[in-house]
Amino acid sequence: MMLVNCTGLSQFYGNKLALDNVDFNLGAGAPIALVGPNGAGKTTLFSLMCGYLTPSKGEILILGEKPGSAQLLGRVSALPQDAKLDPNLSILSQLTLLAQLQGMKPNAARQEALRVLTLVDLTEVAGQKPPSLSHGMSKRVSIAQALMGSPELVLLDEPTSGLDPANAKKVRELVLSLSGEITFIISSHNLDELEKLCDQVLYLDQGRLTQSVSLQSRNQAQFDYLTLTMQSCDADSLTKELSARTGVIAVTSKSSNEFVIQYDPALTSALEPTLFSLFEQQGWQYKMLLKGRTLEDTLFS
Ligand SMILES: Nc1ncnc2c1ncn2[C@@H]1O[C@H](COP(=O)(O)OP(=O)(O)OP(=O)(O)O)[C@@H](O)[C@H]1O
After folding, report:
1. Are 92 and 117 in contact (CB under 8 A)?
2. Distance 252 CA to ligand 1 centre (A)
3. Which of 87, 88, 93, 295 is deepest in the core (most CB within 10 A)?
4. Probe target for ligand 1 pocket from 17, 34, 43, with the most ligand atoms within 8 Å of CB
5. Which ligand 1 atom sits nearest the alpha carbon of residue 37?
6. Nearest ligand 1 atom to alpha carbon 189
7. Displacement of CA 22 from its chain's centroid (Å)
8. How far is CA 78 from CA 51, 186, 226, 269, in A?
9. Mutate to test the pocket of ligand 1, among 42, 157, 202 (most ligand atoms within 8 A of CB)
10. What pTM does this model have?
């Protein structure tokens, strides 16, 4: 069974069309990214998947059921963009209460609350109330809440916004470690992060689904890419020299020291050694050479 089926999905707020005839199907598996500029309709799509909104037109099914239906209780959960915790209850009490609302007995609910707090590395704040937590800690508590029970689908809206780099990394590691059991759909503006986590990317723009990119099939494409960052070089000479190498199809400069090289792997067995000897001949220093191209380049070039 598909995890999400979306057919002709449209959503109006009054006269404002926030989602425009969106169609896609998603299977269970590796994390899926939902990307798009501000106002593209990402939160609206999440709200429809959670059952907070009813579609104006079209249909959405999660695990074959209508979002919000009793059959999905405990199987789908979400970290909303502006998740709020109850300021008057300790973290442990409110997570325990939420676990009880999922049908657990008080003792089991408390154990479950402690289990998810351990996952986000926050057992030490179990007895504290939300106002004494930092923004990043509150965010991790909300992520813990989304992991309670055994959900099959977890929707994370901007899970690392406002987190420091170390905690953002912890959240990414947690998502990866759980992604064998849970399918995550992650909305974020951080393309570098999504690239590390996701195999598939849905790109929304002005309410329309304009691209659905599989990062795996991107790696099996006819042409390959290298992304090159130079320490020092003459950009025009470098572009000219690179373009003259066998198998190179195009060289695009992203900035004065960053270049994307598109090449045909059938015509050159290994381009990298050729590049290294070119740098040596010319006395150019490179900083970084990456196989492939970034998600940003894939979506916007
Ligand atoms: N409750 C609402 N009433 C009226 N218009 C709304 C409402 N919620 C969203 N919109 C509009 O619908 C469109 C899509 O909004 P949405 O919040 O889904 O976008 P988003 O992709 O999540 O944006 P962001 O990246 O800024 O969070 C926007 O034009 C927004 O102004």
Report:
1. yes
2. 34
3. 295
4. 43
5. 25
6. 25
7. 19
8. 11, 10, 37, 46
9. 42
10. 0.81
Backbone angles phi and psi of 108, in degrees to 5: -65, -35
Task: Kindly indicate whether the ipTM for this predicted assembly is greater than 0.95, answering yes or no.
Answer: yes
Strand arrangement, sheet containing 76-79: 76-79, 153-157, 183-187, 32-35, 200-205, 208-214
Q: Tens digit of pLDDT per residue, the chain (301 long)?
A: 689 999 999 999 999 999 999 999 999 988 999 999 899 999 999 999 999 999 999 999 999 999 999 899 889 999 877 778 899 999 999 999 999 988 899 999 999 999 999 999 999 999 999 999 988 889 899 999 999 988 999 999 989 888 888 888 888 999 999 998 999 999 988 888 888 888 888 999 999 998 777 766 555 566 788 889 998 778 888 899 989 888 898 888 878 888 888 888 888 777 888 889 888 888 888 999 888 777 777 777 6
Q: Which domains does the chain have, with CATH numbers?
A: 4-218 (3.40.50.300), 221-300 (3.30.70.100)
Cα 219 from Cα 297, distance rounded (Å): 14
Report the C-alpha gap between 158 and 190 in whole angstroms. 9
